Amino acid sequence: MSPRARSALLLLLLALAPGVVGAARPAGLRDVRAVRHWSYADFTRVSIELSGEPRDIRVDRLPSDPEARRPERLYLDLEGVWVGTRFNHRPIPVGDGLLEGVRLGQNTLTATRVVIDLERYQRHRVIRLHSPERVMIDIFGPRPAEPARAASQAPPAPAGPEPPSAAAPGEAELVPAARLPMDLRPVRTVVVDAGHGGHDPGALGLYGLREKDVTLRLARLLRARLLKQGFRVVMTRDGDRTLDLEERTAIAEGANGDVFVSLHLNAAENRRLHGVETYYLDEGYERHAITVAARENGVRPSQVNDLQRTVAQLRVSEASGHSAVLAGMVHQEIMQGVHRRYGSVEDLGVKKGPFYVLFLSSMPSILIETGFLTNRADARRLRDPAYLNLLADEIAHGLVRYREAAGPVVARSGR
Asked: What is the pTM assigned to this prediction?
């Protein structure tokens, strides 16, 4: 930014927010911890991590201003959040053909403004996540004809806010539109998500088993089976690395996935509990799903109701119908296979559950809890390569069934 531009920005801050620049921080405000972004072929995701829950979020879109050389932009006012002057030295550059960059500044004594400078735009959605508290903005739109950029990450380095002006009608929503009607979309790409990883071990169980290790072994075995069946396979992780839930689903969306399969393992204080259960997203959920959802989402059980209020705002009926069919087919294949070989594996059924990785995905999505690491019989099986190979075989069989039936059967499921 040129010296003249910096001076203009400072004058703008002074004019917009008298008393903000140099003012003492009011008590009780949250902080901006980090700003990250991921760029993919069809959309860009921006995630703003906060130290706590904002009091309110206001979103609007501003038209371009050619005379002032300002592009079209979105702005979010985060009430109850303090950023001060920490990040006002330069914008966070993106430059991916959809976003020019992201800027943050203290708009009032009690509100931070996030400004997203747009290169192209069709629509956007805003979602809040918990533990840690994040505000996530997805911007969708056409990009120039060039190879998609890889996911990127930038440290927080924003500049100041801009004033509201005559804005175009807001187009925020809480669920992405499908690229095609789901009953017309061929199933080619399967996104395989090995749960947890890196500094997040997931559930810890008997025999020294860690959820993150078992899910990765299973994911690799499943990938091999799916490739042989002619699927394109995208792994959210192929090593022991930490992935946020929003990054997992950004990978899935960026890969234009047709199906999302998240692999997990259960745990319980009652070590007699054992078996396999498969989840899909729905507007309702069974009460016994709360503990599982809390653990896999990384939140407290009391926060699952907050998540469910978000889920209730989503137009999930179409995706839920397809996901229910997918869950039923995969779960049936798993249980038939393990019963033939092992006999005593408990069938815990297909269930509804409010999981972040399911409602952040626009494609049919399921989450499979493949056993309890805290149960002696389940843990013995889950450390046995033969059992993991069997699970991979049967999950792949279920996905083949879904691919073959995706047209007529899945279309009927939505009615």
From this structure: 0.66
